[in-house]
Please model this.
Amino acid sequence: MNLTKEKRTSNNHELPLSEIKHQNSHKYQKHTLSNITLKTKIALIGNPNCGKTTLFNQLTGSSQYVGNWPGVTVERKEGRLKGSDTLIYIVDLPGIYSLSPYSQEEIITRNYIMEDKPDIIINIVDSTNLERNLYLTTQLMELDCKIVLALNMNDILLKKGKKIDIKKLEDKLKVPIVSISASKNRGIDNLIQKSISHLNENKILYKNIHIYTPEIERTISEIEKIISNTDTYISEHNTRFAAVKIFENDPLINLLFDNNNIYKKQINGIIRELPEEIQRDTEIVIADQRYKYICKLCSECITQTTESLSFSLSRKLDNILTGRFTAIPIFFTLIFSIFYISFGPIGSYLRYYSEYFIITHIGGVIGKFLSASGASIWAKSLVQKAVVGGVGSIISFLPQILLLFTLLSILEDSGYMSRAAFIMDKPLKKLGLSGKSFIPLLMGFGCSVPAVLGTRILENKRDRELTIFMIPFMSCSAKTPLYLLFASIFFPNHQSLVIISIYILGVLLSIFTAYMFRDSLFSGKPSSFVMELPEYKLPSLKNLWIHIWDRIKDFIGRAGTVILGATIIIWFLQSFDYNLTFVSDDSQSILSSMGNIIAPIFTICGFGDWRASVSLLSGLIAKESIVSTMSVLYGSSTTSLSDALKVAFPPFSALAFMVFVLLYTPCIAAISSIHKELGSAKLTAISLIYQFLIAFFASALVFQIGTLFTNFIR
Amino acid sequence: MSSLSNLNVGESGIVHNVIGEGPLRRKIIDMGITPGVNVEVIRSAPFGDPIEIKVRGYSLSIRKSEADIIILKSLSYKQINRSRIIYGSDTKQ
Model:
């Protein structure tokens, strides 16, 4: 992918839309030689919710590889065609409604077709939504790339009493059409066969299809002629596509003509010959004529065979799920159930069992092996404490996260998530966000890692960044053990009240964050909320499994690298003193002396004890570690943890400590997810420093005001 | 000239034009809201905004402020009179 190289040095990892443009016409010559290529590339293009993912999964199975398109945080999926001897690769392009020049997904698709030149496009079309889906098809047909149409969900259409005359449609569009059912795995072999045979044909018949009125068609041909005289990279290929876009006043294609003012003038001259009302708004003329053509096509090829139901199932479900009085209670019940399952008894059990399994069983086996092989003390400590203990405790909450993730994926695949966004849009709009941010924010209460990942559904970069900044303030479930411990010791009669207040404080501060940053750091176009509400459907297990497997791979990948690295560093600091001798007493270690150095900072917050600082440091690995570290550092054989803490934390400092834990920098796993999704080290650093400062000031405030208050009373 | 945001739940209208320029207008047009198409307001969200509309056989959610740029054809004088005859002259139109 050729994205302008100069921009890579900018701090902002994502390129502004105007910069994602093509250059280098010589790149094309390289590609024409590639007709002799060894591998065939098939591009999968279609609307969101048309079954594209399902088709992709059926075609590639588990061979798919998920990455990012260069320069942007849009997911890129590629995989090898299952069961084929030749090397056929399928690239899944983002779901798009059109090839307009405004959203990243659309630009990526355009660039991919024009630059990377796939061998063939499979345009998957939702039969139950044919008009809108064909709008994209008409645009794809204007490109210089072979296309096969995959008509999906034909069976559902039949149930609605409608039938598409595929042969007639094929004759009119001159594009090969195959009827498939991606979810039922039907027609897919047929689709591939037809695609391959079409690949070997030389002609592209649909290039000559006239969609527009004769005067517009004439204008387009004239623009095409002018373009072919220029020396831009569109002069040979995709001229019709470019001509239509120029006619529509497309800003990106116009960029290509920066140096070609004579041609621009010529083209403007041709357009000025058209009637006034067409000239005035060429963009809508094209869209309007496309849809008129499509409507005519549909009326000729779709017939109503039986009586259709007056209200679809989706409409009936929505009457309840988005009804004025029922929507919100149902929504919160669903969300609460998901969280209760993931973080209540079932989830916790999964967690404790995994932890037990990893640390005791696997750790035990490894430990025996190490002892038997005579490994040194520090090696044993490294493996057992850092690798098994540290990384193991993080992997042990993988099942819980996956459970949350699965439940939320089911909700999303079923179509409910868009309703959730629909319900929550108005309140979120006041924060400068849209309803789509609600789900990632909510997920933050479970764990920041999938929450931050979930911000990918936000198309607007500004929304994504702002939401990511807000997520850490949604108190993640790993912090709960600390709250429970402290609440039971210091506020035994008001436990629930205190804990709920902590959560609410987190939410208030995330709202504060939104107000603080939305105009300064993230000024930009606010997002729109024009969003399809797809029909409800039963989630496919296969899709779910592949989705989960992707997440597992990602999580383990990160656990194995970043988290392992960080854990080993902290282990090292905890196990050695400045002379680099191994110590078994933590208080002699480098970490504790670091804790002693940092500790005075927190005097103002009321917990200037080195043990508190070290516990907070250990919270960088995983928030649960705070409690476990505290039990190691404070507890001893004579005093219980509760008594020791009661002594160590004066009044209000316990509350201040809880506030600090709520707000400060998240764990390494979260930090690495945030960095990955923000794509910018600078923004990540700002986020982390900001959280630390807020945590510091808030807890200092709590302690100082609380102490003043008690002194005042006395 | 009324816009889509003026329609009440259950009402429908025919699009006359989509005004303005830029990404929002483009998105609305791309989603099938072009001159001549019929749009019907199905419901509004519990907090009052956004609204769900039916267009070209599928459901779309859109904020009322965004729906402002979708201008509908106003009913002709003849059509207003016809509905007065059917529903009585105190019909709100």
Q: What stands out?
A: Residues 77-87 of chain B form the longest helix (11 residues). Chain B touches chain A through 34 residues (CB under 8 Å). The longest strand of chain B covers residues 12-18.
